[in-house]
User: Which sequence fits this backbone?
C-alpha cells in the first residue's frame, strides 16, 4: 500500500512517515503543493494525505487539479482549518475525508483503512478490459472458457494497465507503482514480466495485447482482424 504525504511541517511529516512505515505502508513525503501535485499526478499511490496550508500551492488547489486530471486516488485532508466552511470546501473540491489537527494516530490509521477498503470494494472482485476479467481475489486472468494464474507482480502490472484502459501507462510510473520509488530495479525486469503477460494473453486468445511505446511506456492495444 503506497501513501503520498503532502505536509509542510517537517517534524509532523517525519513523525507520520515513521508511524506509517511501522504499519507496513510505503510512504513518499513532500513538503510543498507543487511537488505534491507532481507526485499525485503519477497516479501510483493508493491514498494521499494532503495538508491545506502549503507553500507554492494550497492543498485545495492541489486537490482540484488532481481531480481535474481524473486522479481518483482517495484523499484525506489534514489541516488546522477545522471550521465547517473549510471542511465543506474540501469535500466539495473532491476530498474523500477531512481530519482536523491535532488528530490521534489511531483515528488517522482507521480512516486510511476505511478508504482503501472502500476503494477495493468498488472492483466487486473483478477488473475488466474488453471482455477479459482480472480476479482481484484469486489473481486469475479469465477470458471466455479459459483462465490462467498470474504471479503477484504480473497481477499488479496488469491491474495498473487495466486501470489505464487504452491510455498509455508511463514506464517510470508503472515501475514505481509495482516496485516502489526506492526499490533497486534492473532495467530489463519489467520487460520480462511484460513478455510473460503477453504469452498468457495469447494463451487466452484475448482480443488485445500489450504494446510497447518506445521511450514512453506500455498500452493495451486491440488486436487487428
Assistant:
Amino acid at each position: 500500500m503506497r501513501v503520498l504525504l503532502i505536509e509542510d511541517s517537517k517534524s509532523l511529516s517525519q513523525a507520520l512517515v515513521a508511524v506509517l512505515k511501522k504499519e507496513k505502508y510505503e510512504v513518499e513525503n513532500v513538503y510543498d503543493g507543487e511537488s505534491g501535485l507532481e507526485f499525485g499526478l503519477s497516479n501510483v499511490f493508493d491514498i494521499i494525505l494532503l495538508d491545506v496550508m502549503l507553500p507554492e500551492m494550497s492543498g485545495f488547489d492541489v486537490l482540484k487539479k488532481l481531480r481535474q486530471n481524473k486522479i481518483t486516488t482517495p484523499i484525506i485532508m489534514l489541516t488546522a482549518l477545522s471550521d465547517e466552511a473549510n471542511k465543506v470546501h474540501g469535500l466539495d473540491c473532491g476530498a474523500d475525508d477531512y481530519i482536523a489537527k491535532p488528530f490521534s494516530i489511531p483515528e488517522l490509521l482507521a480512516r486510511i483503512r476505511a478508504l482503501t477498503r472502500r476503494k477495493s470494494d468498488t472492483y466487486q472482485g473483478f477488473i475488466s478490459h474488453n471482455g477479459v476479467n482480472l480476479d482481484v481475489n484469486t489473481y486469475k486472468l479469465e477470458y471466455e472458457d479459459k483462465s490462467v494464474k498470474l504471479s503477484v507482480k504480473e497481477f499488479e502490472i496488469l491491474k495498473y494497465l487495466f486501470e489505464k484502459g487504452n491510455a498509455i501507462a508511463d514506464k517510470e510510473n508503472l515501475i514505481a507503482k509495482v516496485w516502489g520509488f526506492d526499490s533497486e530495479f534492473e532495467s530489463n525486469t519489467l520487460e520480462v514480466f511484460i513478455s510473460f503477460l503477453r504469452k498468457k494473453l495469447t494463451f487466452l486468445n484475448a482480443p488485445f495485447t500489450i504494446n510497447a511505446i518506445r521511450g514512453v511506456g506500455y498500452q493495451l492495444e486491440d488486436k487487428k482482424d
In short: Helices lie at 10-22, 33-41, 59-68, 84-93, 105-121, 152-164, 171-179, 189-204. The chain has a mean pLDDT of 88. Residues 208 and 223 are 5 Å apart (CA to CA). The first helix runs from residue 10 to 22.
